[in-house]
Automatic annotation (TrEMBL), chains A, B:
Residues 34-53 bind DNA. It holds the Pfam family TetR_N. InterPro entries: Homeodomain-like_sf, HTH-type_TetR-like_transc_reg, HTH_TetR, Tet_transcr_reg_TetR-rel_C_sf, TetR_C. SUPFAM superfamilies: Homeodomain-like (SSF46689), Tetracyclin repressor-like, C-terminal domain (SSF48498). This is TetR family transcriptional regulator. It comes from the Bacteria. Residues 11-71 form the HTH tetR-type domain. Keywords: DNA-binding, Transcription, Transcription regulation. PROSITE patterns: HTH_TETR_2. GO terms for molecular function: DNA-binding transcription factor activity; transcription cis-regulatory region binding.
Amino acid sequence: MTTTRPGGRSARVRSAVLRAAGDMLAEQGFGHLDLAEIGRRAVVGKTTVYRRWGTVAALVADLLDEMAEESLPRTDTGTLLGDLTANARLVADTLTDPRQGPLFAALIASATCDERTAQALHQFYETRVAEWAPCVEQAIARGEVPAGTDPGEVIRAVSAPLYYRLLTTATPPDHTVADRAATAAAVAAERGVYVPAE
Amino acid sequence: MTTTRPGGRSARVRSAVLRAAGDMLAEQGFGHLDLAEIGRRAVVGKTTVYRRWGTVAALVADLLDEMAEESLPRTDTGTLLGDLTANARLVADTLTDPRQGPLFAALIASATCDERTAQALHQFYETRVAEWAPCVEQAIARGEVPAGTDPGEVIRAVSAPLYYRLLTTATPPDHTVADRAATAAAVAAERGVYVPAE
DNA sequence: AGCTTAATGGAACTATAGTTCCGTTAAGGG
DNA sequence: CCCTTAACGGAACTATAGTTCCATTAAGCT
C-alpha cells in the first residue's frame, strides 16, 4: 500500500524550510537566493529541498499557500471609517516591519517571475480582501455607503496606496499615510464611487 | 590624456543592450535572466556586458535612468477630474500593454533586490509624479481643491490602485478601474483628504 | 591620414547553482 | 515490536552563470 506521510518529520522539514525561506527573502530579497543555502539554514539536506520544491519560485508559492491559511482577526469598530483605518494601520504596520515589509516586497517580486507563484499570491490577497470585505457589507447595511458598493474594491483601495509607497518610493507607509488612505477610501465609497456602473 | 568616449560605438552598444534587456525583462521577468543572453540578443560580446554593467540589477538601474529621461507629455483638460482620468487611463494602458505591463512589473521586482536599482526606480517615479503634479496645482489655483493639498499624494493616489491590481490580482487595470481611481482621488482631494494635518 | 588607447569580443577558465546516485533514517501499519 | 518503504541527506557529478586574458577594432586627437 502506498501511503502518503504528512506526519512528523516531513511536516517539521517543511515548516523549517518555509521559515528559513521567509527569513532569507526578508533579508536579501528573492534575487540571489539559492535553495542550498535555505536548506543549510533550515538544517535540511539540500537534496531534500530540491526534491520537494525544485525552484525558488515553487518554494515561495508554497510559502504563500501557508500564509494564506493563517488569517489575522478583523477589527469591528462600528463605523466604516473606523474599520478601514484599523485595516490601513494594520497593513502599514506590516509593511513597515523590518521583516514583514521586505518579505512582502520579495513575495510580490517572486510572483512576477513565475505563473504558479503569481496564482498563489493572487489567492493570498483574495483571501485577505475577503476577510475584510464584511466591514463594507456592514456599512452598506447601516446605510453609510450606497447599496451595490463593491466591498473588495473598497478594501483594495485602502491597501493600494500603502503598497504603492512600499514599492515605488523611499518612504514606507506610516500611520499618517494609512489614515489618509482609509479616509480617502471611505469618502469615495460614501460618494458611490465603488458602485459599478449598471 | 585620458578621454572618455561617449560617442558612436559605446552609445550604440548601450542602447542595443538596454533594448534587449527591456525586451527580455518583459518576456520572462527578471528571475532567470543572464547577462550573456542579453548580450547575445543585442549582438554584443558578453564580456562587454559584464564589464560595463556587471549584474542584472545594475543593468536594470541603468535602464531606469534612461527611462526617467524620456518624459511623456501631460494632458490638460481644464478640470482636475479630467486631468486625473487622462492620467489614470494612460497608466492603465501602459500596465495593460503586453510589453510594458510585464516590463514595469519586472522593474519593480528588480528594485526589491538591489538598493541602487531601488533608488533608480524611486527617482523614476518621482520624476513621473512631478510631471503630473501641476494639474493638481492648477486645481488648487482654480479653487477645485483646498490650498495645501499635496499634489504628489493626489497623483500617487491615482496610480496606486492600478499598480496594486497589476501586482496582486489576476486582472490588470482596465479603463473602468482607471476611471474609478481617478474619481476616487478627485473626490478625496476635493474633500481635503490630501491636505497634511496642521 | 596616422597614432594612441578606450572599448570590444572570442576563448579559455573558475565558481556556483542544480542533479543524480545510493546508503541511511524513521513514519506508520501489522 | 518488527517490517516495509516514503522521505531524508551526504558525496560525487553536470550545467550554467560569471571572470580573466589577450588580440582586435574603432573613437578622437593631431
